[in-house]
């Protein structure tokens, strides 16, 4: 039956697929898939699937590359605040802390995780539109001086922070998150920089808030921030946003300590992204040039730059390892049913995101098949009409590029267990 769907394809098909611009822990040798130099089938032998598999070596590579690129481009005392929501595994955080990373958090839960990993509160920025009184109080009181910055997303939030700081007899360090009104070219669910989005403040509202003295008795403005979206592959919107934040910074009468340029740099999930991706080096150079042009060349006061990268730091270091449960044929459709589902990795179902699915054993002979999970939802599908070998029950596959927004978005939907995370 499966023959119906069979066709032959160049033996180098998988090696071509694997030719990522960005370094990855995966590699085929003699048709066997290796992860960080170890055979995947050996790694998976005694583990229950599905599970997440991470490479510390790859994690270190991306953090180092990113932070060094900022220094190489002569940005003034850059601070990398890794965005925890991409992956908040404690060993990931411990490794990043060791390399000097700060943290971008969006909840008190993430803040506690960052502190537990030993990250200095003075390297932590707190973003998000819904910070509660309880969260603000905790962030204000952690460490000797509280966190480095509350990235404020509304006037109401500023007012509340000021009130709480007054009660606690503290001074809260705040930055305004500017909504720069740019449209980042990315999926609509992960674009954040337009005025129809809930994020950030419009320039006019920031200027007005600066004049309201009652909001500033126990707060001090230390920075401005932007974050225009995620999985950005082109830099036009980023440059425009830097122009906007620079104009605002130059127009207000405050000696800012920092400009926070957010996160958002994308990785190569698809073949198309492989060809048009912005590399870390190009990104940093573009950022440095834009800052020079729109800001630093116009003033003697050059605040430091904060970055909030998430995906680019952890996206490539992880895969989701799964086994085939069975295959199924329905008229002209062939299904490969695996034991990982949308509850383990929701990106395909939520953002129509593409993830490469790779067999542990490559073969010359391929079929076209839909890779689906066990969840009772039609959107529980990792890929349609993918070219894969005809697999059978127990065979291993990996879902590539699952280090970011994988485990952190996992749920127990359908009463499934949360997949365990391992390092090689
Ligand atoms: C999600 C988020 C980030 C990280 O985005 P990536 O695309 O993973 O780099 C940074 N800053 C803020 C405010 C965010 O919400």
TrEMBL record:
It is an enzyme of class 4 (lyase). CDD domains: PLPDE_III_DapDC (cd06828). The active site is at 376 (proton donor). It catalyses: meso-2,6-diaminopimelate + H(+) = L-lysine + CO2. One of its GO terms (biological process) is lysine biosynthetic process via diaminopimelate. It holds the Pfam family Orn_Arg_deC_N. Pathway: Amino-acid biosynthesis; L-lysine biosynthesis via DAP pathway; L-lysine from DL-2,6-diaminopimelate: step 1/1. Its EC number is 4.1.1.20. InterPro entries: Ala_racemase/Decarboxylase_C (IPR009006), DAP_deCOOHase_LysA (IPR002986), De-COase2_CS (IPR022657), De-COase2_N (IPR022644), De-COase2_pyr-phos_BS (IPR022653), Orn/DAP/Arg_de-COase (IPR000183), PLP-binding_barrel (IPR029066). GO terms for molecular function: diaminopimelate decarboxylase activity. Keywords: Amino-acid biosynthesis, Decarboxylase, Lyase, Lysine biosynthesis, Pyridoxal phosphate. PROSITE patterns: ODR_DC_2_1, ODR_DC_2_2. Its cofactor is pyridoxal 5'-phosphate. Residues 70-314 form the Orn/DAP/Arg decarboxylase 2 N-terminal domain. The modification N6-(pyridoxal phosphate)lysine is found at residue 85. Gene3D superfamilies: Alanine racemase, Lyase, Ornithine Decarboxylase, Chain A, domain 1. PANTHER family: DIAMINOPIMELATE DECARBOXYLASE, GROUP IV DECARBOXYLASE. This is Diaminopimelate decarboxylase. It comes from Bacteriovorax stolpii (Bdellovibrio stolpii).
């Amino acid at each position: 039956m499966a023959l119906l769907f069979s066709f032959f394809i160049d033996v180098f098909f998988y090696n071509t697929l694997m030719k990522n611009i960005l370094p990855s822990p995966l590699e085929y040798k003699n048709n066997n898939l290796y992860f960080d130099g170890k055979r995947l089938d050996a790694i998976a032998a005694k583990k229950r699937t599905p599970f997440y598999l991470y490479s510390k070596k790859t994690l270190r590579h991306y953090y180092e590359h990113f932070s060094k690129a900022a220094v190489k481009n002569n940005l003034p005392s850059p601070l990398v605040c890794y965005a925890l929501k991409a992956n908040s595994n404690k060993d990931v955080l411990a490794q990043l802390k060791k390399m000097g990373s700060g943290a971008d958090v969006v909840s008190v839960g993430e803040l506690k995780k960052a502190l537990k990993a030993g990250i200095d509160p003075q390297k932590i920025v707190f973003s998000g539109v819904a910070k509660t009184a309880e969260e603000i109080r905790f962030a204000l009181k952690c460490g000797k001086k509280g966190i480095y910055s509350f990235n404020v997303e509304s006037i109401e939030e500023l007012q509340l922070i000021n009130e709480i700081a007054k009660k606690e007899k503290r001074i809260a360090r705040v930055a305004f998150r500017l909504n720069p009104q740019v449209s980042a070219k990315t999926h609509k669910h992960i674009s954040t920089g337009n005025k129809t989005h809930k994020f950030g403040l419009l320039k006019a509202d920031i200027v007005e808030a600066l004049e309201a003295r009652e909001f500033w008795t126990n707060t001090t403005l230390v920075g401005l921030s932007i974050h225009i979206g995620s999985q950005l592959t082109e830099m036009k919107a980023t440059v425009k946003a830097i122009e906007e934040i620079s104009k605002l910074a130059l127009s207000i009468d405050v000696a800012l300590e920092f400009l926070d340029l957010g996160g958002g740099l994308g990785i190569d999930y698809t073949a198309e992204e492989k060809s048009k991706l912005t590399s870390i080096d190009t990104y940093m150079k573009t950022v440095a040039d834009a800052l020079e042009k729109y800001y630093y060349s116009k003033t003697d006061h050059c605040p430091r730059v904060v970055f909030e990268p998430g995906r680019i730091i952890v996206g490539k270091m992880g895969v989701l390892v799964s086994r085939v449960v069975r295959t199924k044929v329905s008229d002209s459709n062939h299904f490969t049913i695996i034991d990982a589902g949308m509850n383990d990795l929701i990106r395909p179902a939520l953002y129509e995101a593409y993830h490469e699915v790779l067999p542990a054993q490559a073969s010359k002979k391929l079929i076209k098949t839909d890779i689906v999970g066990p969840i009772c939802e039609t959107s529980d599908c990792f890929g349609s009409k993918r070219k894969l070998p005809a697999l059978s029950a127990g065979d291993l596959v990996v879902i590539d590029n699952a280090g970011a927004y994988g485990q952190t978005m996992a749920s127990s939907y359908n009463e499934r267990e949360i997949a365990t995370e391992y390092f090689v």
